[in-house]
Amino acid sequence: MKNRPITIEHILFALAFLLALVSRLWALAATPLGDTEAALALQAAHLFSDRTAAIDPQPAYILMTSVLFAIFQATDFTARLIPALAGSLLVLSPLLFRRQLGRWSAILLAFGLALDPGLTAVSRQAGGMMIGLACTVLALGYYIRRSSAAAGICLALALLSGPNFLPGWLALAIAVLVFGRSSIAASSDDAPAPFSWRNALIWAAGTLIVVGTLLFLQPRGLSAAAASLGTYFQGWGRASGISLGQLPLALIFYEFLPLVLGLVGGFRSLFKAEPIDRFLFFWFGIALLLALVYPSRQVIDLSWSLLPLWVLAARQAIRWAGIVREHRFISAGQAALVAALITVVLVNLAALVTQTTLSEAQVFARWAQLAAALILLAILTLLVAGGWSIPTALNGLTWGVAIVAVVLTVAAMWNAAGRGNYPDRELWRVDAYPAEQDLMLKSLSEISDWAQKNRQPLDLVVIQESPSLRWALKDYPQAEYDSVLPVDARPSTVITDQTNTLQLTAPYSGQDFTIYTAPEWPAMVAREWLEWGFYRRAPVYTTYAILWVRTDLFPGAAINPTP
Asked: Which of 95-109, 148-162, 540-554 has the lowest mean pLDDT?
């Protein structure tokens, strides 16, 4: 057996994969689970203890996560680990399309997928969305490579991922029907070997049985997978509350780099004989349309349109990289200066948009700096065009803009991953953000310590239905969940929402905590959107929870305290 030497291509793909792992796993548990995430994680945690309850139609996530919980501990990190690993494996999928895309386009695509803000955000949320996305792309790649066993396994995992795989499959199927299967396998150097559908279906059926039933321990997984179709079509009958404009704004603010490059490459394909680009452009359009018209839309539904968009962007970037082969050092120097001038423009624009207390002199100074930067940008481009050539000047201008776009993409990825100053104000979040949940748990822990010192049992009653709160209190097995308390009840601690006031005979003291914060997206105007784009400032609505503690539990409490 020959030992294949390690090439630069292998090293670059390994770096892209490592970058994806870091961006998806680093501080994965820094933000608490929201309600949607916690509901799925709770089902995974209670899968073996509650064998009669139905599970949501995302069996791949629930079953595989339950195995993680059984081996390790049920934590926020392990609850999000499976989607994070799936998102990292997606970065390696361009390896399967090298012959169709080209060597350098595939490498650039791998880095784009690793740093993409939207895909990073979806990978860091508990659920089956990223599992379906990654397994669908891998199944398509293995189909092109004629690996029927691997294609069948990935196909089955995508089927088990949940209802979110349906719009992606539908968009891909429409694109294939319009352009034909040959458009997918175009530009292949290999002879079109036949694909063994029989073998693929056998492996898919085996995977469905083994994974979908968790080695026959949980047959509920197959019924949950079958319910995915009904769940998706039920979404056509109810609105999610996400406005139609939030999806295009998410593309503009988070995906500016691939959006511009992808649209250029897509419109170019309409006038050039580029069957792959035409197929990708049509796939992107159908996937985006399905996400927009779906009444139960979520911003994460854009993930299906990001895949063909990034492929178009990578192919177009490689074309531009090879346009000018002379005066490259001149273009590089011009690109650095262009990036610096554009940064000056953005800094002054941010100040003018967001700082409403500027004096007239300060406003004039900002406009002057902005105008001077634009004038210098134009003069620089004209000087390079006159001194060397117009293609050299355009090349330097293009790559200067690309440098700024890459920096903004990395910053958007950082924010979308929940690592910014305002993790609750990101468009890619599915749930409201549990803002002060950790403070409530800290207070509850201190109260528990006091009760143990005084040798008093600590019982906890929760009068608020919240999957996120229930998940946070998983380490309190004594917690009880009720809708109402009798007047003569004397629990040590009670958690209620902001609308409930305890009416018990025993005296209690309460402290409110911000349990949820979420931006008021529909109420935002253009100026507020610009301010959000620069600094993530946005109007938010807040929901509170109140932690009530029986007064006699506090240190130094009086024997007969006043209610």
From this structure: 540-554
CB-CB neighbours of 433 under 10 Å: 23
Work out the average pLDDT over 543-557.
82
How far apart are the C-alpha atoms of 152 and 93, rounded to whole Å? 16
478 Cβ neighbours under 8 A, 6+ residues apart: 458, 459, 460
Select from 213, 230, 231, 214 the least CA-distant residue to 222.
Answer: 213
Phi-psi region at 205: left, alpha or beta (left = phi > 0; alpha = psi -120 to 50): alpha
**Distance from C-alpha of 426 to C-alpha of 433, rounded to nearest angstrom:** 10
pLDDT of residue 558: 46
Model confidence over 286-341: pLDDT tens digits? Answer: 999 999 999 999 999 999 999 999 999 999 998 887 655 667 788 888 899 999 99
Q: Which residues of 141-157 are buried (b: 16+ CB within 10 A; e: fewer)?
A: bbbbbebbbbbbbbbbb
- As given in the structure block, the two tokens for residue 470 are 């229930």
Q: Note whether 208 and 225 are within 8 A (CB).
A: yes
Q: β-strands 493-497, 460-463: how paired?
A: parallel
| Whole-prediction pTM | 0.92
Contacts of 183 (CB under 8 A, 6+ apart): 176, 275, 276, 278, 279
The answer to whether the CB of 289 falls within 8 A of the CB of 245 is: no
pLDDT digits (tens, 9 = 90+) for 433-453: 998 889 999 998 888 877 776
Distances (CA, A) of 128 to 102, 175, 423: 31, 24, 22
Cα-atom radius of gyration of the chain, to the nearest Å? 27
The whole-number pLDDT of residue 556 equals 62
Instruction: Report the C-alpha gap between 122 and 301 in whole angstroms.
Output: 10
